[in-house]
């Protein structure tokens, strides 16, 4: 006979309701709620433990979880049957001799033909609840070819399936959708679309995280990173840092920086990844956010608390994730701490990992050199040795595959040369000044050797401030030569280096307000030293 069959029967030991057992009072055993709980006004909270040691709520939650798992399986199956739209989203490429880059010429989806001019747009398309399909595809077409230049890290085909499949559309974060539409309009060059950019900007920055689903966390991080790049292009650094802090907060809150330990040590955590691509996106989400944070954060201290807790392994290329290969850290090694202790440009990781490592050294050099006017201390000397070793170990441009990955190369080598400038920039010694000028000239030479520059429409948003720092250093060297009454020929190489960097900035200033603003500042500085 069930313990709950009759209220008058003596209850078996351990079968009282949870609340009565906790209070150690006699329970009547009435079902579904005992009289004592009903009289106390909390009858709805009265629960009994069944024979398996679980409450009714726990059993219900288990059933819901099981149904959600089955639903996800069916949705994945349906997605595989959907035809992937042929929107060209170029991959990050890879590095030669990289065992984990299964397809060096990897493209997320096959390239489409050139975008056809749109003769007419649907009336009131910008006001509709659901974006018309032809407009959504058009905006994605404008955004996709340059996505990786602005911090896009997700898997292209899977994103397209979510955007353009009616059965999967609900699985896509509306925040990310609005940001992609914003970028598509911004890059379109079509005045009919650009007229509505302020409206779509308002929608993009109005994030709704109140009902955030676990599956939307990575989507929302992606949206925040794309907004960081957008605001940097507009020269709005404060808004960019606000979005970056939001992205970093999401990463830390959901433990994306400690994925190897696999411990839900935070109140918020994600369910296990569905597959290697899902896991790879989570790894890339953290390291992309990390890269922007290290390159842009201007605090005068190293973020040691976060750095020393990171055990998420450095990322591979997306092609590796597609092949089922995911970086692991079974020993729980502190990823960044281990790298800082023994820097090295490991080719087995790939372009994103290489850039994240360069950004780490960049941040540390900036903090070490801030307001230091003395010679290098022993720990700073050790850091300088590690920095120079890393610079020497970066692969040459020829080993970077694909035009967009070649842009990664120019970003990495520029970060490292500017790191040298930051390390020595404030030290009032001839040797330090010489090292700064050598680094600035080396950066200019690297730009000159980058013959792909004229074929690239957009470059990483952090490059504007990096190139400005290089120009400042070269101008300071030219001014010092003038003060010493040296001949023009003695600083001709500095002038030529300056011209090279300024030309690169002019190349991208037409579509980047941040670059244009730095050029305006440079023009004033150039005028004062009589360089035309």
Automatic annotation (TrEMBL):
<keyword id="KW-0805">Transcription regulation</keyword>
<dbReference type="InterPro" id="IPR050815">
    <property type="entry name" value="TF_fung"/>
</dbReference>
<protein>
    <recommendedName>
        <fullName>Zn(2)-C6 fungal-type domain-containing protein</fullName>
    </recommendedName>
</protein>
<keyword id="KW-0539">Nucleus</keyword>
<dbReference type="InterPro" id="IPR036864">
    <property type="entry name" value="Zn2-C6_fun-type_DNA-bd_sf"/>
</dbReference>
<dbReference type="GO" id="GO:0005634">
    <property type="term" value="C:nucleus"/>
</dbReference>
<dbReference type="InterPro" id="IPR001138">
    <property type="entry name" value="Zn2Cys6_DnaBD"/>
</dbReference>
<feature type="domain" description="Zn(2)-C6 fungal-type">
    <location>
        <begin position="16"/>
        <end position="48"/>
    </location>
</feature>
<keyword id="KW-0175">Coiled coil</keyword>
<dbReference type="GO" id="GO:0008270">
    <property type="term" value="F:zinc ion binding"/>
</dbReference>
<dbReference type="GO" id="GO:0000981">
    <property type="term" value="F:DNA-binding transcription factor activity, RNA polymerase II-specific"/>
</dbReference>
<dbReference type="Pfam" id="PF00172">
    <property type="entry name" value="Zn_clus"/>
</dbReference>
<feature type="coiled-coil region">
    <location>
        <begin position="57"/>
        <end position="84"/>
    </location>
</feature>
<keyword id="KW-0804">Transcription</keyword>
<keyword id="KW-0479">Metal-binding</keyword>
